[in-house]
Each structure stands twice: as C-alpha cells, then as structure tokens.
DNA sequence: GAAACATATTCCTTTAGAGGAATATGTAGT
DNA sequence: ACTACATATTCCTCTAAAGGAATATGTTTC
C-alpha cells in the first residue's frame, strides 16, 4: 500500500476517531454513531472512504455492517496505526471515544427495547 | 500540537518528500528544487504550508533560506516523523531523493561557476 | 544603484473532498 | 407482502488547497 494513501485517510478528524476506535476491535455503524454522535451519513461515508483505500474491511452480520481493521496490514499501515494509537492518547476527543466504547453494552437492540432483547452484532 | 494538523501536512506527496529530506538535516530551497526537480513556486508554497503549521523552521543565510525540522518537536511530531522515515525507505521516490541529496556538493554556486567559487549555504 | 540571484507572494483556475437532505438498498420480523 | 430497521448512495453546495504564470521582495555583487 502506498504511504500517501494512508496519510490521506488520516487527515480528517472523523476518520481518525473511527480508526482509533477500530484499534480496540471490530465495531458496527450504529455504535460508531452512538460514540461519535455524528450523523449517520457522515460516518457511513467516511467508512466507505476508508474501505475503498483498504484501511478497513466490512462484513455483514444480519442487519448490521461490522467494520474492522485488516487482518494483515502492510508494514506502513501497521506502523501508522500504532503511531496513531500512541498519539491519540494525548487528545481528549480520542480518550472520550474509547471511554464511551467501554460503557457500551455492545448489543444492537432496537431503540426502546430492553437490552437483553437486543442481538449482539459486534 | 494537534495531531490532525500533522496529518494534514503529511497528505501531500511533495511535502512528504520535503520532510523526508529534512530528516537528514537542514536544506535550502535551491537544493530542494534540484533534488525534487519540481518548479520553485511549488516547493516554496509547500514549505510555507509546513512552516505555518510549525512542522519546519526557516533561517535566512545570505540569499538563501535554510529550512530545518524544529529543535524540540512535540511527542506527536517526533513519533510521526520517525514513522515517516521508517516507511519512506520502502518507496523508490524517497530513496532516490536521499540518494540525490548524498551526491549534492551542498554549495550554492551560481550556475556555470566552478564548485569552489560557490558559497556554502547549508 | 543596477543587475543577477534566491525565494516568496499574488492572482488565477481547477479539483478533491466535506457536509447534509433525500432517497435507495438490503435485512429481519410479523 | 408490509413494516421497521441499519446502512449505503445520490444529489447538491461549499471550501481548502493544488498547480502555475507573473510579479514582488530581499540579498549580494559589481
């Protein structure tokens, strides 16, 4: 993978937040929405951008699309993701996102349903 | 320094080449031109871009402007520059630039003058 | 001080991409 | 089949920034 392509993916705040979260493990779009508190179209488009450039993979699980980092990233990608994770610690936005991720119950229940009726999606 | 600002600087090929060269030491614009073989305005503008965002410093030396990396870069910048230097090794453009840098006699002589009449600028 | 040189800046055109509203697609449940 | 849900895609508008020609600025040399 070309180095420039990687940096192009990293030069937007929303994408940095998405990647920072994905470093913790696979996640579906509805959870990204919940954590970032950004409109669905915005999240969906940035994920598409990352997908087209090979920074993330998707897998459908029922109604949900679960995104994750590639299994065997190139040397460049691995290095940069590690660097990002290291640096992101220093900024509040990223720390808060990870905190919210921790509090999430990780089920994709319909709104209003009790949490044990929801199916796990990721 | 904000992480996003760093990545914004890294998402252009010309700027990556400039930074990769600066990792080897200070350099003046005329040498960048010689190595990158890109028009003066292009190089000058990208250096201005980097300067405005604090990724490089400038110092005038006679007619020449000598650019260099900041003396004490932030943690984020240091990490990313190290990462860049590591990754750049894998791509031909960057290796070639460094090669050309090595062959340079590092004097800023007027065209046509013998090399020992030229003054050192960086 | 005029000319040559090194570099920066201004002005322009063009393009990538960000953001959002509306709509389309695919899936599950009834 | 109809509905609700999760996500993607298609429009659109707007802005940052890339690239280059021409010009301006600052420096040295004669």
Uncertain spans of chain A = 111-116
Based on DSSP secondary structure assignment, what is the total number of beta strands of chain A? 5
Strand content of chain A: 5-15%
Largest interface by Cβ-Cβ < 8 Å: A-B, 21 and 21 residues
Helix vs. strand class of chain A: alpha+beta
Please tell me the overall pLDDT of chain A.
91
Main-sheet strand order of chain A equals: 1-3-2
Helix fraction of chain A, binned, reads 40-55%
- Could you tell me the radius of gyration of chain A in angstroms? 14 Å
* N-end to C-end Cα span of chain A: 28 Å
Q: What oligomeric arrangement do these chains adopt? A: homodimer
The sequence of SSEs of chain A as H and E is HHEHHEEHHEE
Tally of separate helices of chain A: 6
Largest sheet of chain A: 3 strands, antiparallel
Assign an overall shape of chain A: globular
Provide a concise account of the structure shown.
The structure is a homodimer of 122-residue chains. Chain A is of the alpha+beta class. Chain A contains 6 helices and 5 strands.
Supply the key terms.
homodimer, 122 residues, alpha+beta, three-stranded antiparallel β-sheet, two-stranded antiparallel ribbon, globular, DNA-binding
What do these coordinates show?
Two copies of one chain form a homodimer. The first copy, chain A, is 53% helix and 13% strand. By secondary structure, the first copy, chain A, is α+β, with helices and mostly antiparallel strands. Chain A starts with a helix and ends with a strand. The relative contact order of chain A is 0.19. Chains A and B meet through helix 1 and helix 5 of A and helix 1 and helix 5 of B. Chain A binds a DNA duplex (30 and 30 nucleotides) through helix 4.
């Amino acid at each position: 993978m070309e180095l420039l392509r990687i940096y192009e993916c990293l030069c937007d705040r929303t994408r940095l937040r998405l990647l920072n979260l994905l470093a913790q493990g696979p996640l579906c779009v509805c959870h990204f929405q919940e954590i970032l508190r950004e409109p669905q179209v915005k999240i969906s488009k940035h994920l598409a951008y990352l997908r087209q450039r090979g920074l993330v993979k998707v897998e459908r699980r029922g109604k949900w699309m679960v995104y994750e980092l590639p299994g065997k990233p190139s040397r460049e990608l691995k290095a940069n993701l590690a660097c990002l994770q290291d640096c992101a610690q220093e900024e509040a936005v990223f720390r808060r996102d990870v905190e919210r991720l921790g509090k999430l119950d990780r089920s994709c229940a319909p709104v209003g349903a009790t949490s044990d009726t929801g199916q796990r999606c990721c």
